[in-house]
Design a protein that fits this description.
alpha+beta; 2 domains; three-stranded antiparallel sheet; two-stranded antiparallel sheet; 28% strand; elongated; binds zinc ion
């Protein structure tokens, strides 16, 4: 990767941002000091911070269902804050081994 300002080589560095688990990858030019962040990694970090700062965090138990399946109740508070009435389709995504993300829409 070349520096867009002076065209010399850029050095890759990993930067830690408060509350984000994954480091943000930045590219720094040793010659002119120009630097930028890799968009994918900064978006990742922003997402992680948002999860940490979620306005609603409730401890819930996973319940056992038949055929090895598991389930989880959504409390009234969660349903109300997300405007869920039941019957909606949601998207479940597992970004890493510690998060289960349920998106109401894509
Ligand atoms: Zn430069």
């Amino acid at each position: 990767m070349k520096c867009p300002k002076c065209n010399s080589g850029m050095k890759e560095a990993r930067v830690r941002i408060q509350d984000a688990k994954s480091p943000v990858i930045s590219h720094q030019c040793a010659k002119c000091g120009y630097f930028d962040f890799e968009e994918k990694s900064i978006n990742n970090a922003i997402r992680e911070i948002k999860i940490m700062e979620a306005p609603l965090s409730i401890k819930q138990k996973i319940i056992k269902l038949s055929h090895g399946r598991l389930g989880m109740y959504l409390s009234k508070d969660i349903a109300r804050s997300l405007n869920l009435r039941g019957g909606e389709e949601v998207y479940v995504c597992v970004p890493d081994k510690k998060h289960l993300l349920v998106s109401i829409s894509c």
